[in-house]
Every structure is written in C-alpha cells, then in structure tokens.
Amino acid sequence: MSVRLLPDALENWTSRVFEICGVAPAQAAEAASVLVRSELRGYGTHGMTRLASYVERLQSNRFNPQPDLTYRSFPGGIVLNADGAMGQLAGPYAVRLGLDALKTSASVLIVIQACGHLGALGIHTLLAAEGGAFSMMGQHTPPALAMDGFRGAAIGHNPIAFGCPRPGHAPIVFDVACSVAARGHILLAARDGDPIPEGWALDAEGQPTTDAQRALGGFLLPMGGHKGIGIAMMVECLAGALAAAAPAPPPQRRDAMQAAFLWLVRPDQYAQSPAFGNYMDEWTQTYRTAGGDGARLPGERGDALERQAREEGVVLPASIRDELRALGDRLRVSFPG
C-alpha cells in the first residue's frame, strides 16, 4: 500500500539523522532540505535513496560533518574549498557566493574543491535560477565510462546541468550524466533485483550486460558515443583541472572527495528586461508548437511533481521506505508515518 509522507516531516527527520552524525543543526537542516527537495522533484536516484550512504560516510569521516568552508575571490572567479563537506552543503553555499558576486559582475565562475557527492546537480542550478541567474554546473567523478574496445574505465561519467530563469514561469532545469544512464539507476535495479536495458553498461570484461550487479562491477557506456565522452572531457577541464591545486584531503576522504564547477551569468546585464523574458517566451512557444501536446520543457515535470508532493505528500518506494525505517531504528530516530 502506498504511504504518503508529509515533506516537512521527512525533512525534519532527515535533519535529525544528519545531526546525530555530527552535522551542525543549521547545516543539517539545509542538507536535508536539498535531499528531500531532490526526492520531491523526481530525482529518485539522487534523493532519499542516498541517505544511508551519506550517513555511512559522515560516521566514517569520509565526509566532514563539521566543515569550514572557505574561499578566495578575484575578478570573475571564486575558488571554494568545501573542506570535505557534503555536496548538499557545498552546492547551495556556492550558489549563494555566486549570486552575491553577480551584484557587481555580469558573470562568475566558481570552482569547488574537496566536496562530497553533489547529488542532483539540477537542484543547485534550480536554486541559481530562482535567484535570477543562468547557471551551468558540472562535477568531476572517478573514471566510470568506457567504449567498445576500451580496457578499463577511461573518464568519469561527469554529470552536468544548467538552469535558466523564465520570468513568470518555472525555471528551465536540465540535468544529465555523460553516461547513457546514471549509475544511480543501476544501483536501484541491483537493489530490487531487476535487469537493466541493453546499451547501458559493460561488465568487467568489457562485454555488454543487462545484469545490474555485473554492470556495477564494470563500466558505464557514454551517451551519444564519442559526443558524451567529449562533454565529459569538458567537465574534466573545468571541474578537475581548475581544481587541481586543492590541498590533499586526509587519507580517509580521498575516494569520497570530488571537485566541481559552477558558472553563473546575470541575464539583465546582457539583455535588459523585458527583452530577455520576451525572447524566452518566444522560443519556448515555438518549441511547444512544434512538439504539440507532448512538448514539455526541462524542469516543468519536476516543478509539477514538487507542487503535488507539497500538497499531497510524497510516496517513497517500499524498498527505500524500509531501508530508511531500518536506518532510523539504528540511529534511534523513528521514521515518520
């Protein structure tokens, strides 16, 4: 039977879980808000299903539960050292830094060093768009992609996202990994004992597989073949190479720390109101007309899902709900509902 959970109750429970792991209350509340909002907007692979792994990393100090986020700024740029923080803290902090920088600049590029998994990048670019900025974000990940004939993982699946405000409408939010499918989809399939579609992954021997467990031990296939590899390379340049001067993390955090970039642009510095909003309306209307009733802009589904969930509650898959209830029992924080 489906059980609807109130988003506020789920958020408060998640915040308490983070606090038990040593996260300061204000930061625990923000991280919980980002994680739950990801769930509400349909990012199932990057929402509540990630909580147990984040708890393990916080308790083992692979994520820093008490990070001291510091930064240095210069004309047009910021370097943020996240000090091992969860991505659900580092991402929103970077957005706030960027929006503040746009008060005196038309554009700013932020490089984020030493942060944990950012989760759904679209949540962070959504926050920037809600603040009035166009943004693009990418995160460097460990090698995971391979192509036919490769002898191992060659480059990260390096997710990338952008967000763009639409005056009077929900922002456009586009979020993809450079792989055909996000690793999170394979994790969910493996957890539920389901096969994965052909064309998603190779096994450890480089052979195509539909077995989720074998895929987890192998490699992801890039979207669009060499095109996906090329986009992953762009993220390596911006999120990897530009962050290469980061201080070495403690040994226990080395495999959990990743780097990212966030680029923000202030639209009204380029196309003053109402020209920007009018152009956005024109091209999106052309898109809808061409696509008919089924045409939908990226971010619209997430916006509708979030509105519905905040009004009616959110339904978690039974396997995730059971996992969270067991986590709550272990930490002595009763799961809501």
Automatic annotation (TrEMBL):
It comes from the Bacteria. This is Ldh family oxidoreductase.
